[in-house]
Amino acid sequence: MTGQTQNLYHNKAGQWLCYIALFVVLALVPVFGAEPFQLNVYSRYAVYAMLAVSVSMVWGFGGILSLGQGIPYGLAAYCMGATMQMQYQTPDDPIPSFMLTNELTELPAVWEPFWSTSIGLILALGVPTLIMTIFGILMFQARLAGAFVAIMTLAILNAFYSMAQDLQPFTAGFNGISPPNPFTAFGVTIDPYSEMLYWINLGLLALVTLVSKYVLQSKFGTIVQATRDDAERVRFLGYSVSYFQVVVFVFAGLIATLAGIVWVMTVQYVSPTAFETPFSIYMVIWAAVGGRHSLFGAIVAAIVLNYLQTELADISEIWQKAWLLLLGGIFIAVVLLLPRGLAGLFEYLLGFIKIGRRQAAPGRIAAN
Amino acid sequence: MSVHDFWTPFSAGPFFNALLLGFTLGAIWLLAALGLTIIYGTMGVINMAHGEFIMVGAYFTFLMQTEAGIPWLACLPLAFIGVAIIGWIVERFLIRYLYARPLDTLLATWGVSLVLIQGVRLIFGGEPQYVAVQPHELTQSAELGFIHIPWLRIFILGATLALAAGTWAILYKTIYGIRVRAVMQNKEMAAAFGINAQQVYGMTFAYGAGLAGIAGAMFGGLKTVFPDMGLGYIVEAFLVVVTGGGHLFGSIYSGAILGELNSVFSYFTNSTFARFVLFVLIVVFLRFYPQGLFPEAKARR
Q: S-S: B212 plus which of A16, A90, A206, B35, CB 3.0-4.6 Å?
């Protein structure tokens, strides 16, 4: 690499500029004085964008099509929901009301740790990570790949979904847990409709994107992308493919975990829908439409698609229903015609600019 | 919830009944997985819209019953034809362009499933519909001592076995089947011998979709009919295919084994917990046998 790149799209400085511009624009949103309710909706988009980044990491760069990003997301959300619920409970009134209606007479042992907010947070981070690690080791040591991984992740996601729905005394079943008060940490109450929450979500999104970008440009990230392109060749070069796959799987899971934690802070609610199959596949759709090989594209697509969905739902009920039809159509078209998503289209278009210049300076072709 | 409520103690009669029910459950999963097996085994395509083909088959049956008054048994072949045509269209205008990218067929067919679910919801609404099973005797249960099994489930067991046998006969006893197996083994070589591989793929996909249509017509009678119903079958169907190794006999055995295991676990605990345990067991099983129960046929795919 001499610093002369063929396509403007691959210009590193240009890429960083795009990311900076994106986050500056997103950071300016509250400055323009959004309504508290609207701000909360935007905070949700930040969570969706994190999930798209998570899928982009594991699928776009790791080559692992996981339809189960809802597993770490949902587990973290339930841990967080329990933590926030226990912040409301007092030693005099230790049992959440949904447990009383399910005829529990004492707090179940699995709920005891959530008395402490810090232990609750540690569990919210640790439980999904542990499960994703075990799951990843099981799958990737067996050299499962491609569609098999997709089906395995889907199956485990479904298993958690039915558990969350069925274990009513512990999870409030279909109704889900809705903690009465906003999350409080270190004496600070984080109001879901405040600018502070928006900053937290956006800050986490920026952090996650930055770390992901950094990881991708490191040697580790290069090897991960090599396992995506040709796992067998990487294995022959002496690398342990399963190690890299497990790590990137867990890393992407961690991003989804963070998304699950802030999601419950944002909506004060967690239900089995977190484990629903369609939701996990929507994450894949966002990443696919934006461009599976582009974190930037994934973030923008997640925000734009969800914005469109909300706006259309506001127009009328027919549009709300037609949206999914439209989303399915968009997805089919992208998979068929634009496998690299909108970012790929952008890359293609930028390529034209460069060709024009290159023809003006013929000596460059040989140099490249 | 104490341990005692959760754990059902063993008793011979009900346990034996659970074993029999397990076979009928395995048959239901196998019926859902049959078309998927054919499509995956022949073309290597993961058809995520298969559950929605089942759903469309159920709505098709519902429509023919309410609008045309066709008896349920006559609806079964009609559902096959109706959904097979939809499958043929999907293959012709979508899947055909994605054979070089197998993982992308999974995504594209998910797009199809989204469109089908939402399309049906727009047309029929989200409320559940009912398919009337005729003759009426099928809705009752077979009672013999401690045995207590709905006739419809026994009917589905028989129909599934008949369909599996029919599929086997087509694959191994007809000229068409020889062509399919030739394309399965080596598409280019088969094409060089004058077999229209494109047409074989199209027909195979249509046939697999048609099987889903029949499944839908029967499941519609078993449970209610609603736009999301396909999601309830697709995961189990995929697991049957994957555990079996992606071919007809593997799916038959794995369908029976998984159905039995689920039924036995359900007997001792409850159906949700059984589902969880079974799914985790399958993941652990595939850790040690990634090729499924019958790996030798995988190379022939």
A: B35
Range(s) of the domain holding residue B258: 3-300
The four Cα atoms A273, A278, A284, A288 give a dihedral, to 10 degrees, of -140
The segments of chain B whose pLDDT lies below 50 read 1-3, 297-301
Nearest CB neighbour to B107, from listed A152, A160, A288: A288
Query: B43 touching A, CB under 8 A?
Result: no
Is A328 in CB contact (< 8 Å) with chain B?
A: yes
Contact of B104 with chain A, judged by CB distance below 8 Å, is answered with: yes
Nearest to B280 among A159, A325, A328 (CB): A159
The reply to whether A99 touches chain B by the CB within 8 Å rule is no
Query: Are the beta carbons of A335 and B104 separated by less than 8 Å?
Result: yes
Q: Please indicate if any CB of chain A lies within 8 Å of the CB of B92.
A: no
Structure tokens at B205: 């996909």
> Inter-chain contact A328–B282, Cβ cutoff 8 Å?
no
Residues of A in contact with B254 (CB under 8 A): none
CB contacts, 8 Å: B112 with chain A: 328, 332
Most A CBs within 10 Å, among B99, B258, B283, to test the A interface: B283
pTM passes above 0.95: no
Residue A147 lies in a domain: yes
| Residues in chain A closer than 8 A to B104 (CB atoms) | 335, 339
Smallest Cα distance from B104 to chain A, Å? 7
Chain A with chain B: Cβ pairs closer than 8 A: 118
| A348 falls within a domain | no
Read off the pLDDT of residues B215-246 as tens digits, 9 standing for 90 and up. 999 988 888 899 988 888 898 899 999 888 88
Instruction: Name residue A188's beta-bridge partners.
Output: A185
The count of structural domains within chain B is: 1
User: How many other C-beta atoms are found inside a 10 Å radius of the C-beta of residue A35?
Assistant: 9
Three-state DSSP state, B202: helix
Sign of CA dihedral A220, A223, A224, A225: positive
- Side chain identity at residue A362, one-letter code: P
The confidence score (pLDDT) of residue B142 equals 77
Structural domain contains residue A321: no
**Residues constituting chain B:** 301
The mean pLDDT value of chain B amounts to 87
Question: CA A74, A75, A78, A79 torsion: positive or negative?
Answer: negative
Q: Count the helix, strand and coil residues of chain B and give each as a percent rounded to the nearest 5.
A: 75, 5, 20
Long-range contacts of A212-216 (CB under 8 A, 24+ apart): A212/A53, A212/A56, A212/A57, A212/A255, A212/A295, A213/A19, A213/A295, A215/A251, A216/A57, A216/A61, A216/A295
Instruction: Give the closest-approach CA distance of B184 to chain A in angstroms.
Output: 18
- For A6-17, the pLDDT digits (tens) are 677 777 777 888
| Range(s) of the domain holding residue A129 | 34-275
Residue B138 DSSP class: G
d(CA A87, CA A188): 13
Inter-chain contact B286–A144, Cβ cutoff 8 Å? Answer: yes
Using CB atoms, which residue from B103, B110, B282 is nearest to A146? B103
Query: In chain A, which ranges are E strands?
Result: 183-185, 188-190
Written as six digits, the tokens of A368 are: 């490249």
C-alpha distances out from residue B51 to A92, B31, B36, B112, B273, Å: 50, 11, 10, 11, 23
Which CATH number covers residue B281?
1.10.3470
Q: Quick check: is A168 in a domain?
A: yes
Residue with tokens 């923008």, as numbered in its chain: A300
Q: Which residues pair with A177 in a beta bridge?
A: A270
